[in-house]
Design brief:
Layout: H1 3-32, H2 41-47, H3 49-65, H4 70-92
Helix pairs in contact: 1-4, 3-4
């Protein structure tokens, strides 16, 4: 496996972690009343977890069954989560 693949995977995971922390901070500020938030945000937060994890699991399993390398498998599993978290960050920052 080449070093560039590791760097790309690390960058993808780091972006996911940063976006996740941003979403968590905004939601916590909304729950405490520091920023305005939707009345159903807590429900949305809980309802999205299962489907997002299932999409990540399915993508990772598909890459595994296709015989891809470990970095490609992890990248495939991270992509659906990163899309959801990024969409949440953009929505909450409006």
């Amino acid at each position: 496996m080449n070093p560039i693949a590791y760097f790309a995977l690390h960058s993808q995971a780091t972006r996911l972690m940063m976006d996740t922390q941003t979403v968590m901070a905004i939601r916590l500020m909304g729950m405490s009343g520091f920023v305005p938030s939707r009345t159903d945000e807590n429900y949305v937060m809980m309802a999205e977890k299962g489907p997002a994890m299932m999409r990540a699991l399915a993508a990772g399993n598909a890459a595994l069954m296709a015989g891809k390398s470990p970095d490609k498998i992890l990248s495939a599993a991270i992509k659906p989560l990163a899309r959801k978290v990024s969409a949440n960050r953009k929505r909450l920052m409006k």
